[in-house]
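User: what does the whole thing look like in 3D?
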Amino acid sequence: MSTGGLAMSWFFRRITMVIFIDAILLFFFGNCSKSFKLHDGQVSSSSTTFSRTTFAELYKNVFAPKCLSCHGADPKNLSANVDLSSYDKLIASNILQPYDPENSLLYTSIKAGYMPPGGHPLVATDQNLVKEWISAGALENESNGLTCTSGNAMHPRLSNYEYKTLIMDISNGQLTLNSITNLPELPTLFNYDTISEATIDKVTAEAYLKTAQELTPKILNLATIRNLCSANLTFKEKTWTNCGLPITNFIGQRLFRRPLRNTEVDTLKVVFDNSIAQGQQRITSSTLAIQGFLNGFGSDSKGAYIAGWAYDPDWPERNIEVQLFIKLKDTSGLGTFVRTALADQPRPDVNSVMGTTGNQGFVIPIPSTYLNGQNYTAAVAAVGTANNAILPSSATAGATSVDFAFNSNLNAPEVTGEFDRVFQDAIENTIVALLMSPNFLYKMEYFPDGFLANEQGFKLAARLSLALGSTYPDDALWALAQNNTLSHSSLESEAQRLLTKYSSRFSTNFAGQWLGFRRQLLSDDSNSLPYALAMESKLVFEQILLVDKPIGQLLEPGFTYLNATAASHYALSGGSSNSDFTQVSSSARGGLMSQAQFLARTATINESHPIKRGIWVLDSILCRQLPALGQATFEEIAQAQAQIDPNASVLDKMAFHRNAGARCSTCHNQIDPIGLALENYDRNGQYRSAYSNGKPVVANLTFNGSLVSNPSELAAVFGQSNEFRSCVKKKMGAYFLGVNPVAPGGCGQFIPENASLKSVTINTVLQAVEGK
Amino acid sequence: MNRLSRRLLLKNMSLTLSLPVLNNFCSFSEAFAAGTGRSHFIGVFFPNGSYFPANDAIGSWHWNDNSGVLYPLTTGADAVKSNVMVVRKIYSGFSGIDPHWQNCAGFLSCKKINLDLLNVRCGKSIDQTIADTKSTPLRSIEVGGPYYHQHLLTDHPNYSHLYMNRIAWKTDSQALTPFTDPYALFNSLFGSGNQSQRQIKYLMNRKKSILDHVVGELVTIKNRTSAEGKLALENYETGLRDIEKGLSIDTQSCTTPGSPTKSYSDMNLNYIDRVQQLQRMIVFAMKCGLTNVATIMYAPAVSGDITYSGDLGNGLAHHDVAHHGGIGDEINRLKAVNQMHLGLLKHLLNLLKTQQILSQTLVLYGTDMSDGNLHLEQNIPMLLCGESSDLKFGQEINFSSAQPHSKLLKSVLSLSNVSADKVGEGALETTADLNSSLLT
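Assistant: Here's the predicted 3D structure for the full assembly of 1212 residues, as structure tokens:
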């Protein structure tokens, strides 16, 4: 026992024991039952009630009469700095491990008879009351089971995933998550980037600007956007009203998650107008004629082509647009316009001679209709000069089927290509301004007074849509927002709908960050094993979410999803290819602690690592916080490591760690049962009953009083425990609300055993959206 | 008096910051080279400490140890031992705070990190204090390792990840994001190098028009948000104004280092080349007078994901080998990582030497702890580097008693001709420096 513990036991001995057995028995048995009121077969945020032993009851019946004289009655004279006079003070006294009475000094000192002191231990009923209270999660009160305490309200910036998803949706799926690069890494809070910090400094702003500038041409090239501005309009007709405004409104309201205000439209028009003026001025101030040359005609396996080069001396790196005209040989005029192309092919010979950089070559395919045995003459005009000069040719090129003569002195028709580019630049600038806007990069709740009364609906809609789908409100939700008719009940039904619609995204972003597989899912090759294993984790979570299964089934779903690569890894049947993830019945796989993506990630390159696995499970599956390791602990670890026999069994090595001192056992009593129970999985997550040296895998420790000798027993113990269910809720509280998942109190102290993953998700997201 | 519009001010600034003035900055730098003080400062941080056998205060940092981590500095035709001073017996840190976080964020300030998620702050770092005194076109350049470290567990729930990923703090509450991608830094510093004047002007005007608009939005919005939100938006506004300022910088007369060519998408591949490219750009920017101040993070604190496998072969991640547990292979791997980083320091010093600005520059090289296995905060390896006869370069400085890191920071300030009443806070606060021991 620590020094503090000994001191505490001395003070406890001074307590005069007062026993109210009848009252306690009545209270205990009258309150330990659970009552759930379920709504439509699900646990709903507004309709779930329950009762459990709470701190208030324990205080009234045990602490106040039997302990408080030394531990709280006089705050200036606390025994061993243990204060039982309030829930927060008890938590701060650090003698409590919720769900784990055997590792809680509060209970072990009572059980061993140290407390209360003086040879008057608590009667068994009182002891059990304390034990039950801790085992049930050490609730503060019975009303906060499904309710989160207020979060950090730190949801200022769009996460990168949200940024990309919004753009992907604007493009109607034509742009993918991977087509957006260079976004700066965001800080995370509790491992979720949905609640990142707000500051954007110069380097970050520069990265946003670069991304916006790269992204905008791709967005404007989309058919849906082009349809907003008729291709048949001349440059003079491509006005703000005809083209700029509809495009800006279409993209802007999606980026801002609300309609643009008139003042915002006016200032964006200024950006557009300024850019048009700058572009026109650039054209009229052009000083040097475009240079270029036609090298001739050629043909290869892909067909016939015209090749040459062209560039603007005022802007050598820009790729010039060129136009191909063809006419029958010896006829008059320029000929028929055939097609345009960009001079964007490598021509190191041109760079070498002209002293330029960039790509200025062009290769224009000749349509097969001209390869008909007749002789034609071709001309290539470079767009961007006052007269769109026809490029000089090297010579007349001959061919068996065509005879292309290059004429350098023909008059070009009026070409508006360069002016089109001016419009393109102007609308690009406007969209970049939208992408750089704080109204896009920050979330609405960050501007508490920035909302007009008729925009409140959009605020709710945006929060809900971002929370579940990482995107802007879809048409149905938008309509409700527009009418400002989003009530609690309509929000709940919208949440149900959106969770189904966006289950894949929610699984990727929430579960992917919680369980650590998102990076593999978003970055790895879809034929790789890490990707296959990340998909397994995602699909199991998504299925339990969609079919409304209890949270506990995340640990033992009875099925998993495997493609060909993952099936081969597990030596199970599975999908026929890597794109085919098939649901496979399995009692041994699919659970959070039997998924290879987790097991491999918490191993070293050579071997499984029971300590890493145990720590990860305590943190991620049970939301337990281990004490931060200080210098003294590291020294103790080093001393223990130096004494361990390298040839000892894993079981013996762990026992040595566990028993090396008080600091060691505090953590290892929790870590080791988990780590050892998972030793049936090797470093790759493949099942084994013996180590490579032939020694059998053995686990013989208890966790929360139950023997956990293998992965199945561990999953069963956790699956029945409120601690795991509560942890899932806490992780959601962190994701949606920024509530610390490992701090005492917070979200989800008690979750009913039959609560479904979906109902708890909806319950939590509504708290976040409605601010309740 | 009529109030100058921001636009007019920027317009005038763009004239002010044109080439002739850049030349003046170069002259300014050269004046320092004459011996009046050092005009340039580079702070270099590496994470996770080093290998220290039990009861060995020097650890693997012996000058004459061929297997020690200093070996790269002392060997070869390009050896830089004469430019490096080993400063021993330095301690840092605050009781009860994890040194990974604390001594990274506070590496250049010795200020305590705040363990309150709503109030992320540390302290203004000395690089920024030095930058305050320099009228260079770019205030400072920050570059960083290959990725942003995010701790997988919530076992440090009140620690912001910013603390592990930033050593430069412009103010107590504003950490500066480093460039990690050589292409991004190149484009930022020298991206207009091959463009025509007409093209540069057009692109600059386009960007300015956008930035003007966004700044206008920020000004409108920040008046309608909380104090915390206002601060964040003001920081964004400052960032945009810094970009606007950068648009006006003409780097066409600068000698450019050449664009990077390799891929840096995998953090473990081309690591050495990545850092060398970033260092090269810093040195060329300094040579050109674009800035006098820079910070380099060879990797963020903890660095639990990076293995440097492209350069060192497959092995455990940096943090794992730092907690080597006495296992020989892991100790050797940690030494190899340390040697690789000192090889990069050597590269930096030789670049500065080649560009003839090492004599004007102080480089402070250090880490967050001494023994990474035990998280010891005494005897933290620190190197002070440069080229002048007034400092004891090429020597080891050993004190009779342990010295706070803040005194070394105070020395850097004073050797850079920057006055400061005190450095650090709490147990690390000091008004004294170590100059009497560092100067010849």
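In plain terms: Chain B touches chain A through 77 residues (CB under 8 Å). Chain B has a mean pLDDT of 87.
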